[in-house]
Design a protein that fits this description.
The complex is a heterodimer of chains A (about 170) and B (about 80). Chain A is of the alpha/beta class and about 170 residues long. Chain A is built from three helices and seven strands, in the order E-H-E-E-E-E-E-E-H-H. Chain A has helices spanning about 30-45, 110-125, 150-160, and strands at about 15-20, 50, 60-65, 80-85, 95, 100-105, 110. Chain A has a five-stranded mixed sheet, with helices on one face. Chain A has a two-stranded parallel ribbon with strand order 6-7. The relative contact order of chain A is 0.23. With about 80 residues, chain B is mainly α. Classes of the chains: A alpha/beta (about 170), B mainly alpha (about 80). Chains A and B meet through strand 4 and helix 2 of A and helix 2 and strand 1 of B.
């Protein structure tokens, strides 16, 4: 195996999330749709389901932040670090660098869907993979018009949460 | 900014779990053995699928300069909860 598991996972199959701070350059509805698609990537291959809540307590909180944002792991402006996320044992939250040019279906900027799908892998308990073609590889590969999980990602997530019954 | 100096490379290696996080600020005068740095570079090169030279060659610098996720590659090496 090439993937790595961090060592923690969620004990429930239905996870909730909220987006408490949106990026200024994208429409709220577009962000909602892209992040839902990013969760769907993992939902497609496991028994997990994800529910977007606008308010209230959730499992995974998502925020777009710049520079130092209260967790001691400051973002570094455009390029460099794009986002980070916590493993389940640390809460599962995902933070995206607001300073990046987040884009949707474009070769320009940084593709929000792809980065979100990667970060949510961390939120679910996956570490980085040294398989270059894996979603969980740490480096941003640029926009891919037809996205597909690598087998390495699928095997890894199914180690934690099992296979989807109808796959 | 591209990772082009030894100090930048060491900070990168510490930041992403290839070097002891206690050495995260190499400019402060912390002593790091050359062998530790060489092994850390080899570990990074292995992870990134590069030729494992143990030297900060141009290809290694290029990969260290790529946009990436902020989560450590080596989570077992001093990884701490962020909150």
């Amino acid at each position: 195996k090439r993937y790595a598991l961090q060592g923690s996972r969620w004990r429930v199959k239905q996870l909730t999330y909220s987006i408490t701070k949106y990026p200024s350059a994208l429409k709220t509805a577009d962000v909602d749709r892209e992040l839902a698609k990013a969760f769907q990537v993992w939902e497609d291959v496991t028994e997990l389901t994800f529910v977007h809540l606008k308010t209230g307590k959730v499992h995974i909180e998502i925020r777009f932040e710049s520079g130092e944002h209260g967790d001691g792991d400051a973002f570094d402006g455009p390029g460099g670090t794009l986002a980070h996320a916590y493993f389940p044992i640390y809460g599962g939250d995902a933070h995206f660098d607001e300073s990046e040019t987040w884009t949707i279906n474009s070769y320009k900027g940084t593709n929000l869907f792809q980065v979100a799908a990667h970060e949510f892998g961390h939120s679910l308990g996956l570490s980085h993979s040294d398989v270059r073609t894996a979603l969980m590889a740490p480096f941003y590969r640029g926009y891919e018009s037809s996205f597909k999980l690598d087998n390495d990602d699928v095997v890894a997530i199914q180690q934690l949460y099992g296979k989807k019954k109808n796959v | 900014a591209p990772v082009s100096t030894d100090t930048q490379a060491m900070m990168y290696l510490a930041r992403f779990g290839y070097l002891d996080p206690a050495l995260q600020n190499p400019s402060s005068g912390a002593l790091i053995s050359g062998e530790s740095v060489r092994r850390a570079i080899i570990d990074f090169q292995s992870f990134a699928g590069l030729k494992q030279t143990g030297i900060l060659d141009p290809e290694t610098s290029t990969w260290m300069s790529k946009p990436r996720c902020g989560v450590r590659d080596r989570v077992g090496t001093g990884y701490s909860a962020r909150r």
